[in-house]
Amino acid sequence: MTAWGSALPTLYEIEPVHWWTRGMLAATQALLAADGWHGHGDLLDVGCGGGMSAAAIVARHRIGIDISWLALTYARQHPEVHLVQGSLATLPLAGPRFGLILALDVLDQGGLDSDTALTACADLLQPQGRMLIRVSAYRWLHSAYDAATGTGTRMAASELRRRVDQAGLIVRRLTYGNCCLFPLAVLRRLQARWLGTPVEGDLQPPPAWLGAWLFAILRAEAAWLCRHDLPWGLSLYCLAV
User: Fold this and answer.
1) Beta strands 171-177 and 235-240, pairing class
2) C-alpha dist (Å) from residue 227 to 32, 138, 173
3) Which residues of 3-23 are buried (b: 16+ CB within 10 A; e: fewer)?
4) Whether residue 45 has pLDDT greater than 90
């Protein structure tokens, strides 16, 4: 049986170089640029992990918060990000003060009351401030990989929209991410489920040529997201105000 959250240390370590994290960062940057984010306000990255996203997004001041001391240890390689250890359930910050809040692969984590966390984040947003959320998509796709990465629940688009509405935010954009590789990923997850295949190998960097090819696919999707939504994918993005 896969230990809960066992892959997180590996994810923190490979975050700066892995094709997936780099490709999804490109998608995040594309969505923000398309919505007109120019970095004039302060940024809060909740569940910041290794700090890569907070460091890459232009902002006046950048704060990353994570409950994991191990994540913050890796995040310290980004000195431009001010780090805080804390829980989304009781955010140790006062608002409203942030022009942008990132919640990337955190609201779907096991043991987290996502509704309470969303409301707490909404209270920290300045008027017309943005919140960009990314969660894992499709409940039926839940697998050992999700257990290894700490994902408690994958979400449908309608469920994410409902949760955002309940937090008092307005959805500006709702789209999938990681679309082109979705069929291959589904086959891999189902194979792991049916055959009990270990998931640890999925976290290892592939050969350089393959990693470059996979990153190019996600970068092309990011260019598409500058103007259009994606109809399906492993991840689900919501941009709200």
Assistant:
1) antiparallel
2) 12, 24, 11
3) ebbebbeebbebbbebbbbbb
4) yes
Does this model's pTM top 0.90? My answer is yes
Mean pLDDT, range 212-219, rounded to an integer: 97
For residue 137, list its beta bridge partners: 155
* Bridge partner residues of 86 (DSSP): none
Each as own residue / partner, the long-range contacts of residues 161-166 (CB below 8 Å, 24 or more positions apart, any chain) are: 161/238, 163/107, 163/114, 163/115, 163/118, 164/118, 164/133, 164/238, 164/240, 166/115, 166/118, 166/119
Instruction: Map tokens 């959320």 to a residue.
Output: 133
Report the alpha-carbon distance of residue 98 to residue 121 in Å, rounded.
Answer: 10
Q: What is the DSSP pairing of strand 62-66 with strand 43-46?
A: parallel
Cβ–Cβ under 8 Å, residues 137 and 61: no
DSSP label at 203?
G
pLDDT single digits (tens) 88-102: 878 888 879 999 999
Residue with tokens 């069929």: 183
CA distance 205 to 162: 36
What are the structure tokens assigned to 201, written together? 């190998």
Structure confidence by residue, pLDDT tens digits, 142-163 = 887 888 888 889 999 999 999 9
3-state secondary structure of 201: helix
In terms of Cα–Cα distance, which of 129, 76, 68, 132 is closest to 98? 129
